[in-house]
Design a protein that fits this description.
about 150 residues, alpha+beta, OB fold (Dihydrolipoamide Acetyltransferase, E2P), 2 domains, 5-stranded mixed barrel, 3 helices, 5 strands, about 45% helix, about 20% strand, rod-shaped
């Protein structure tokens, strides 16, 4: 039995264990074992296979795993609701000043006020949403007003 077959059996075992535990580590080790199996299948010596396994496992655990964990957590970087509207662009529907006005934001009409209380933003101007204050979007013009 060739060394590549041992690596392949190890990869399958680690893959099954990963499916049962969802730790990401075992899956990355399974991929590293597949790399070693590939090296063995093309005729590389066992020492090269071990180096390939070690390098692949280290790269997976130190480079790929943190990205996978961040994607799975998602909560701290995923915005939803009103928070997701901050930074979006909108169009002024009714003149906006420091006291109020109306904008069209994500297909809906919102009450709005300008973050700069002395500024009056005319109808049709593109604005950026700086924050959401209750049910009011706090905006600022995207480009300088004439």
């Amino acid at each position: 039995m060739g060394a590549w077959l041992v690596w392949l059996i190890l990869a399958i075992g680690l893959g099954i264990a990963e499916a049962l535990t969802l730790t990401f580590v075992l899956g990355l080790l399974a991929v590293a074992a597949l790399v070693a199996a590939l090296l063995g299948a093309i005729g590389m010596p066992v020492a090269v296979q071990i180096i390939g396994f070690t390098a692949s496992a280290a790269a997976g655990i130190y480079l790929v795993r943190p990205i996978m964990q961040r994607q799975m957590r998602g909560g701290s970087e995923t915005k939803s609701g009103a928070e997701a509207l901050v930074g979006r662009s909108a169009v002024v529907m009714q003149e906006v000043d420091g006291d109020g006005g109306r904008i069209k934001l994500s297909g809906e009409e919102w009450s709005a006020r300008c973050i700069d209380e002395d500024l009056v933003i005319p109808v049709g101007t593109r604005v950026d949403v700086m924050e959401i204050d209750g049910a009011t979007a706090v905006v600022y013009p995207r480009e300088a007003l004439p």
